[in-house]
């Protein structure tokens, strides 16, 4: 296999207009991130800044490293090298005047609660009701009282359009409903960044809309969101930046409408020709 | 096919009824004899107690086996291999004779003069040795069953827990153990039924279980076969009775499949003010 060469950074780093800080809560900063699984280097050189309140859609062919990037940002995968700062903190590490050392487990867990993750397969806990799925993190990790957690869970269920479904087990809910409970479960931890890993790919087409509506509402409220998806409509309407990834690199980044209509890089053109 | 089966059944029934050496009257007489019932009772409570200890211990070993800390994991692997890799009968005799190895057991704080010595022979009777031996052996098997249950929990479930910031202990308690139950319970039920029969081994230690009590009788009366049939009838009856609660517990843990059974729960949640 011929060695892939890194794309030359021809463009100025893209900054969506009218957004918040690029450091501090709700931001993601990535420099020279490398991640391999054995001999297979999945992320080769990732450099990107996500501003507070930015809605960034990641697209790219399967195996391009989109999911792995999200999993790294959520701390589910350990990065091999590079800098990964989420919410203004180095993920899993702390830097002081003289040292750069790993965080304690407790601190790593605290960082994780501030990052929400929504999985393609929902991953709701099947042994708990919808309400319990949403309260378990609050009572166990955040140590809120049971009554407060339940109250919050009901509010969140209402927010995702599932009022009155609290006593249902995941198996009694449709895929779209399960995914909305999963979003509520993540939101219950009060995250400042939300990651969506192909949130609608496992859903029947007629159920996709409800989930996207919830995500749109979340975006309107100013949540920082990173979304890998094949829903180009969502990218066009809701996202304020679009990242095209291929072979472990970020190939192109820009305004979603512009990139989708007029891609600059040949690799992006090639991909979009296939999917649009 | 029907005919063949019928002929075989009829043949067995014929010989059971007509062969006088079965001594059915003797069997009927001893089936509810006080000695036999006492032995049966010992067999039952020993089975239950051993399974209880073995399940708790097995869960502990399985948790250790799944530990991220290497020495803990190695300890658990050694335990499982030693106790599964040697015959349970040998283990029982070993525990019975443990006094030969450790004549005194010292209770107290290690390496300090605090505490006192106890005579091992007085402490570990035949029954205690039987319970220790069977429990420790069974715990190794239970640990492997529980581990199988742990492994049946999809990886995504643990990632969801990680993502919420749960610690290893929280994931174990809230995600892994409850979700492993539907896999572990039926297997434990089978182990319970096996254990009922395995307890017959303790008769070699002179513990008066069901088998030992019928042995005592036929040593006196020489009615070996009828007495063994008495024991078999009781073993059979209890195993059949034991398989019933297993299905109940299974249904209890299978909450997540309720929708599949077409019985959605009524929505009783009160909307908040």
TrEMBL record, chain B:
- Tell me the Gene3D superfamilies matching this sequence: MetI-like
ABC transmembrane type-1 domain location:
40-246
* Presence of the UniProt keyword Lipid metabolism in the record: no
Mainly localized where? Answer: membrane
**Gene Ontology MF term list:** transmembrane transporter activity
Q: What are the annotated GO cellular component locations?
A: ATP-binding cassette (ABC) transporter complex
The record lists the membrane-crossing segments as 39-62, 74-98, 118-137, 201-219, 225-244
Q: What membrane topology was assigned to this protein in its record?
A: Multi-pass membrane protein
Localization, per the record, is: Cell membrane
Q: Which GO terms describe its biological process?
A: amino acid transport
Name the source's superkingdom. Bacteria
Q: Which UniProt keywords apply?
A: Amino-acid transport, Cell membrane, Membrane, Transmembrane, Transmembrane helix, Transport
List the Pfam families hit by this protein, alphabetically.
BPD_transp_1
User: NCBIfam families, per this entry?
Assistant: HEQRo_perm_3TM (TIGR01726)
Entry's family note: Belongs to the binding-protein-dependent transport system permease family.
Its name, as the record gives it, is: Amino acid ABC transporter permease
Q: Which organism's genome codes for this protein?
A: Flexivirga caeni
